[in-house]
Design a protein that fits this description.
There is one protein chain. The protein has about 180 residues and is an all-beta fold. The protein folds into three domains: about 5-60, SH3 type barrels (Roll); about 65-125, OB fold (Dihydrolipoamide Acetyltransferase, E2P); about 125-184, Nucleic acid-binding proteins (OB fold (Dihydrolipoamide Acetyltransferase, E2P), Beta Barrel). It has one helix at about 95; strands spanning about 10-15, 15-25, 35-40, 50-55, 60, 65-75, 80-85, 90, 110-115, 120-125, 125-135, 150-155, 160, 170-175, 180-184. A five-stranded antiparallel beta sheet has the order 4-3-2-1-5, with no helix packed on it. Strands 8-7-6-9-10 form a five-stranded antiparallel beta sheet. Strands 13-12-11-14-15 form a five-stranded antiparallel beta sheet, with no helix packed on it. It is flat, with a radius of gyration of 20 Å.
Length: about 180
């Protein structure tokens, strides 16, 4: 693929490693040649790098196989999933799951991307519904304007919510930013 074809979420091979494009910008500085500035996350270590490509440069696309899975549970071995095609279960390490652990609830169906048979990345939807399990009560007089308070969800995610939310309520959370979007 051409560097111009890069988009967030695309997987590319660079120096023998798989990277996922987080963001990119096309620059055309004055009378110089155009280039692409991309932020890439290395899939094994999670390290983020900045890479500059010529707009006509070829980039090797990494072909990922996506499998539907069901998240089962978490224990000391890792996060356990079941392949929904052949029903075998497997565990992924906490390093591979990363911050996506906050958006996985037991029995949820999701997808995992594999490259050459090895799991690379867990896909989560753009938003999830989570139950608030801990949220301090608000004090009368705190409602000056758009005040937020900290809350903890059933998965351990800490998020800022409006002061009127109570424990036990279901909230909608953006998985890309970790921000509160609304109530269910």
């Amino acid at each position: 693929m051409q560097a111009n074809d890069l988009r967030p979420g695309a997987a590319v091979l660079l120096n023998g490693q798989i990277y996922v494009v987080l963001e990119f910008r096309h620059h055309t500085p004055g009378n110089k040649r155009a280039f692409i500035q991309a932020s890439l996350r290395e899939m094994k270590s999670g390290k983020i790098i900045q890479q500059k490509f010529s707009s006509t440069e070829s980039v090797e696309e990494a072909h990922l196989d996506s499998k539907k899975v069901q998240y089962l549970y978490h224990d000391q071995e890792g996060y356990h999933f079941m392949d929904l095609e052949d029903y075998h279960s497997f565990a992924l390490s906490e390093e591979l799951i990363g911050d996506k652990k906050y958006y996985l609830k037991e029995n949820d169906e999701t997808a995992i991307d594999f490259h050459d048979g090895a799991p690379i990345m867990v896909e989560v939807p753009n938003h999830v519904f989570l139950k608030v399990v801990e949220s301090p009560p608000w004090v009368k007089g705190d409602s000056v304007s758009n005040n937020m308070k900290p809350a903890v969800t059933e998965t351990g995610l800490k998020v800022q919510v409006p002061i009127f939310l109570k424990e036990g309520e279901i909230i909608k959370v953006d998985t890309r930013t970790g921000e509160y979007l609304g109530r269910q």
